[in-house]
Design brief:
The protein has two helices and no strands. By secondary structure, the protein is mostly helical. The protein has one domain.
Length: about 60
């Protein structure tokens, strides 16, 4: 019979679901933590604006080559 692939596949699925659930729970906890701190929201907005502006400049530079 072909039990080893079934066992390996089931194990991989169980681990993946566990890891993804842990990531989702941690992300939710971090979001709640940061939502209660307006300074972090300002830092996040500034940081994301800087990242997006940097990407725009890079795209502009790449387009001119």
């Amino acid at each position: 019979m072909h039990w080893p692939p079934l066992v390996l596949g089931s194990t991989q699925i169980a681990i993946s679901v566990s890891v993804n659930a842990l990531i989702a729970i941690m992300a939710g906890s971090i979001a709640v933590f940061l939502a209660g701190r307006p300074v972090w929201q300002q830092v996040q907005r500034w940081l994301m604006g800087t990242v997006l502006a940097g990407l725009a400049v890079r795209m502009l530079a790449e387009g001119r080559r």
